[in-house]
Amino acid sequence: MSNKEEYKEICSQHPEIPVFSQYWWMNASCGDNWDVLIIRDKNNTVAATMPYAIFKKMGFTLISQHEFSQHSGPFIFYPESFDANTSAYKRLSFEEKIYKEIISRLATSGADMFWQNFSPRITNHLPFHWAGYKQYTRYTYRLPNIGDSDELFGRISKSKQQHIRKAQKLGLATTFDLSIDEFLEFHRRSYKERGQNDLLDKWNCRQFIEEAQKNGQGTLVSTRDAEGKLLAVCFLVWDTEWGYYLWSGIDQSRRNEGAPALMIWDSLQFLKDKTKGFDFEGSMDEAIGTAYREYGSELVPYIHLHKYYSTTFKILDYLRGTGWKR
Asked: I need a labelling partner for 65 at 20 to 30 A (CA). Which of 112, 137, 297, 326 fits?
């Protein structure tokens, strides 16, 4: 059995693995250009997994992640004996052993560079620092508990509450069965109206959506006015822990009617029986961050890690002006 075949089995048994690391997401995003590390303990039990995308650049090999994936990194399967009373020493020692094995395998993979954003659940990056990896903090915005609608609405700023109520009074309505063609056409038009190229045109986004729907981990959302005119869209994906807000498009000429706020609120209601929390899918942009905070979300850090294994590629990368930043 190949690594990928084994990983497919592992994912089928562990829906808690983040959606961006699930077997189907890796296939949809990377095709054949990905692989996975499977780390086992002394009893041959799977202790951790770490999928990664493989890209070629100027003849060099990069291990990273697809740009539509917020994060990747290791997923650790802690022993059943671990619980809330397990000592920090024991937990950190277990993690350190896994990370050192991952670092060792990456170093001998033949790649010229590594870079990934690690999931916010990974908070111990020291073994990578010791091994010469550079790390930088990035942020996302999260609502950690979306199960209680009244409590959730109370967290939202007064202005956003007013936008939601305004949209409802105007007869705007949200559905979760938008066609792929209508979604892509509206998303493309909304970006064109802002004078921007639609990033979705760069990739086969139809495959992402179809795979998400087929696996019961994604849907297309639309908010329309009383006459049925499309005002806002987004792509939702989720795993057992988090729902993610992806690929939104908005009719800017009518955003003051409250469609974006209503779409997010209705999405939270849709997701509350499917997952535990909601992730706005990250942004380092000040204006976007301010908007997300109005929903009562918390600022959550996650770490970007990178390392050049090839000095030649590092020099060429810097000469081209791209450096490490992706």
From this structure: 297
